[in-house]
Amino acid sequence: MASDKISVILVSDTRERLQMAAMVASVGAVSGYQVSVFLSMNTLAYFVDDDSPEEVPTEGHFGELLASKNAPPFLELFQQAVELGDARIYPCSMSMDILELKKADMVEYVEEPLGLTRFLDEASGGQLWSF
Amino acid sequence: MELIAGIKQGDIGEEFEVLSSDEGSAKDIPEWINKVGHELLDSFESDGVWHIIIRKAK
């Protein structure tokens, strides 16, 4: 039987990976899957609520095309995953500590920081994707 | 995503028409409609633009 859970672990800072992860999260969430996203390592800085647009590095030609073809920004897709599909987005507690961030520093649609052990426990039995 | 937001806010029975220059949408949107249980009324291409017509079913 197909699982109804999708868990996404994000560690990258490149446009292609963030865009694909955002598409998996948003399409999954609005298609009836229970979606959880774990933001760790190089990904976390994009979710800091500091009003300054980040420069997003690309891995290749496709990433440059994404930027030039008006693809929906990945942050917007993650927000829609939450607002339209009840996805839950968790900052990694270890990465938050290392970057000296608090929940109040983050965009408002992310949850309280979560540890990897708890996230993996919640992901058990479902699809797990990493980017 | 704009379609999904629109459907979420609309009334049951309401019809929506999506216009897209992207053939991928013409394939993906019916898949999504089928998955979540709305009704696909029509899907056709005219002058390079795809028209996908949906009725909100629940």
Report mean pLDDT of chain A, rounded to a whole number: 93
Global morphology of chain B: globular
The amount of helix of chain A comes to 25-40%
For this structure, the CATH topology of chain A is Hypothetical Protein Ychn, Chain: A
Q: Strand order, biggest sheet of chain A? A: 3-2-1-4
Largest sheet of chain B: 3 strands, antiparallel
Number of domains of chain B: 1
Tell me the number of helical segments of chain A per DSSP (H or I, 4 or more residues long): 5
Instruction: Give the second-level CATH assignment, the architecture of chain B.
Output: 2-Layer Sandwich
Uncertain spans of chain A: none
Helix content of chain B: 25-40%
Rounded Rg of chain A:
14 Å
Amount of beta strand of chain A: 15-25%
| String of helices and strands of chain A | EHEHHEHHE
Rounded average pLDDT of chain B: 92
**Sheet/helix structural class of chain A:** alpha/beta
Work out the count of structural domains of chain A.
1
Strand order of the largest sheet of chain B: 1-3-2
Main beta-sheet strand count, sense and barrel state of chain A: 4 strands, parallel
CATH fold node name of chain B:
Translation Initiation Factor IF3
**CATH-defined superfamily of chain B:** TusA-like domain
Overview of the molecule:
The complex is a heterodimer of chains A (131) and B (58). Chain A has 131 residues and is of the alpha/beta class. Chain A has one domain: Hypothetical Protein Ychn, Chain: A (3-Layer(aba) Sandwich), CATH 3.40.1260. Helix content of chain A is 38%, strand content 15%. Chain A has five helices and four strands. Chain A has helices at 15-30, 61-68, 74-85, 93-98, 116-123, and strands at residues 5-10, 34-39, 88-91, 127-130. Chain A has a four-stranded parallel beta sheet, with helices on both faces. The longest helix of chain A is centred in the N-terminal third of the chain and has 16 residues, at 15-30. The mean pLDDT of chain A is 93. Chain B has 58 residues and is an alpha+beta fold. Chain B has one domain (2-55): TusA-like domain (Translation Initiation Factor IF3, 2-Layer Sandwich), CATH 3.30.110.40. Chain B is 38% helix and 36% strand. Chain B contains two helices and three strands, in the order H-E-H-E-E. Chain B has helices at 2-9, 23-36; strands at residues 15-20, 39-46, 49-55. Chain B has a three-stranded antiparallel beta sheet, with helices on one face. The radius of gyration of chain B is 11 Å and the shape is globular. The two termini of chain B are 18 Å apart. The mean pLDDT of chain B is 92.
